[in-house]
Amino acid sequence: MTDLTCDVAIIGAGTAGLAAERSARKNGATTLLIDPEFIGTTCATVGCMPSKLLIAAAHRAHDARGTDTFGVHTGEVTVNGPEVMTRLRRLRDDFAGATRDSIMDLPDEIRIQSRAHFTGPTTLELEDGRSVSAKAVIIATGSSPMVPPPYRDLGDRLLTNDTLFELPDLPRRLAVIGGGIIGMELAQAMARLGVKVTLFDQSDSLGGTRDEDIHDALYDALSHEMTLRLGTDPQPTALEVGLRIDWEGGSEEFDKVLVATGRPPNIKGLGLDATGLDLDDKGMPQVCPATLQCGDLPIFMVGDADADRPLLHEASDEGAIAGRNAVSFPAPVPGTRKVPLAVTFTDPPLVTVGQPADEGAVTGTADYTDQGRAKVEDRATGLARLHADREGRLIGADLFCPGADHMAHLLALAITQGMTAGDMLDLPIYHPTLEEGLKTALREICGAIPLQHPGDRDCGSPSGA
Ligand SMILES: Cc1cc2nc3c(=O)[nH]c(=O)nc-3n(C[C@H](O)[C@H](O)[C@H](O)COP(=O)(O)OP(=O)(O)OC[C@H]3O[C@@H](n4cnc5c(N)ncnc54)[C@H](O)[C@@H]3O)c2cc1C
Ligand SMILES: NC(=O)c1ccc[n+]([C@@H]2O[C@H](COP(=O)([O-])OP(=O)(O)OC[C@H]3O[C@@H](n4cnc5c(N)ncnc54)[C@H](O)[C@@H]3O)[C@@H](O)[C@H]2O)c1
Q: Do 149-259 and 341-448 come out as alike in CATH topology?
């Protein structure tokens, strides 16, 4: 017997699931939003927002320590760990509370507090034994930290992004396992807050880069703030107090270890094998990135659950596309996917936009170690690489430089609009700004294509540009 029926059932009330529910309802469907907790999204509770709060405190400490060069003397800078963590949790709780309120604003009959698993392509069973029958199902179950076996028995010495933000105080010595996005952001933040940090990765390179020079600049910047041990196979041992990490050729003791070795999709226990979908060796179905449909069934997969572009704005976009397509099934419409944009909030930020420099691309470079505004601010470091096609149209960029998180949006706009390097040079670029640094890269592309240089466009550089 079916206990609940709807047009579209959404499993998971995170960013992607909430967007999917809104979209399906806006398109005329009756919906059910199923989640065991409704505690707020990963972004608000244990992801984007608390991590940025920690990073914000770290930036303040770093800037406070760096004032002497301006002739401004603040005296010794001290970091009060409990105060840092208390502010973090207070604001984090506000963000999470606002998200929870928006969930609670949904009509009661839509919210089903339970875990769900498939019993067929469009039928689900809830933990309390009730069943759900829908015309379409959207999977929006997110992802969770993967903790490799040797770290699982470390008790409270082990931290992941699920537990780090609950610490009452900052640890004195922290091992970070995984030099990907989470590892780099949190390792640098902790180091700037006075924690002695060693970052381990089994790979020889740090994550998030696709350009060798950008990687070298990133490595150089981080290596001044923490110990980097790449290409190692770290192995932990619990001590009476804290833990020891051994690797080939060395060992070091720590108070805590943060494991940031990736976040696989939450598909365990979902019963995907009951759907009839073809599953790969990881148990994942094929998901069309344009429609978010799984195979040819009325099942859609969005957000971190589909493992493609696991970022906040992509989770919202995917939810909205899938919500609409779940209603229009069996005629899903390909959604417009935005220019890929990823920002790692290190200082300076690490950014990728659009395509990498594939064969045939023309690349221009801007050096930020000698850029006027960056020098004014005592932040002169890193570089930007802009990539164009053979016609000079911008197709992508890799940046590790001050202001990269903001300039990335300008570049995404230019790529979306099909602008050439010359078109960008025809826009007003204020002096002296970080954006001005990009002119060097744009001019290099124009020269290499070559693009016609309008007779009335100046090619000089103002002082400190
Ligand atoms: C530390 C950290 C920092 C980050 N920083 C950024 C950032 O700065 N910028 C950025 O763009 N992205 C960032 N991200 C990534 C971003 O947070 C995620 O991409 C986004 O939150 C994914 O949203 P989602 O809806 O897919 O998943 P979630 O928000 O995790 O939602 C999944 C929901 O599914 C529910 N669920 C799971 N299984 C079941 C089941 N069987 N039945 C019912 N419900 C179920 C869960 O309870 C949960 O509510 C960060 C992530 C982390 C971890
Ligand atoms: N600013 C942002 O947008 C932001 C911030 C944080 C997280 N996120 C999202 O969260 C996702 C997950 O981030 P993440 O950093 O956990 O994963 P990741 O995939 O970016 O990095 C994992 C790293 O761990 C290493 N690793 C794996 N197993 C290991 C082991 N046993 N020992 C040592 N190293 C090991 C890998 O080589 C890799 O470098 C990201 O893909 C991103 O989408 C985004």
A: no
